[in-house]
Every structure is written in C-alpha cells, then in structure tokens.
Specification:
elongated, 75% helix, single chain
C-alpha cells in the first residue's frame, strides 16, 4: 500500500470540510443577524440530508 497518496488526499478532504463549515457558519450568522434565526433549522436540515445521502450512496 502506498501511503504517500494518503497525505494529499487527507489534506484536501480536511480543507473541503473546513470550507463547508465556514460557509455554513457564514449562512447561520447572516440569518441570525437578519433576525431570521427561525430559518436555521432549514440549514441544519440540509446538512443532515446531505450527510445521510452520502452514507446511503456510499459505494460498497
């Protein structure tokens, strides 16, 4: 097994995860600042749906 390919792949995955968290944080902060915090549940619902779809469609 070649472990040298694992490091760049892991770093890219980490970077994408941090970027996604940053975008979600910005959206939630904007909704709270705009007085629309009741819409936060839609953001969390979208996150949950996306994660669930990834697990369901994970190649076996």
């Amino acid at each position: 097994m070649d472990w040298t390919a694992m490091i760049p792949t892991g770093l890219i995955t980490l970077r994408e995860g941090v970027e996604a968290a940053l975008v979600v944080g910005i959206v939630l902060a904007y909704l709270n600042k705009a007085g629309q915090s009741q819409l936060n549940r839609w953001v969390y619902g979208g996150i949950t749906r996306r994660i669930t779809r990834e697990w369901v469609h994970w190649p076996a």
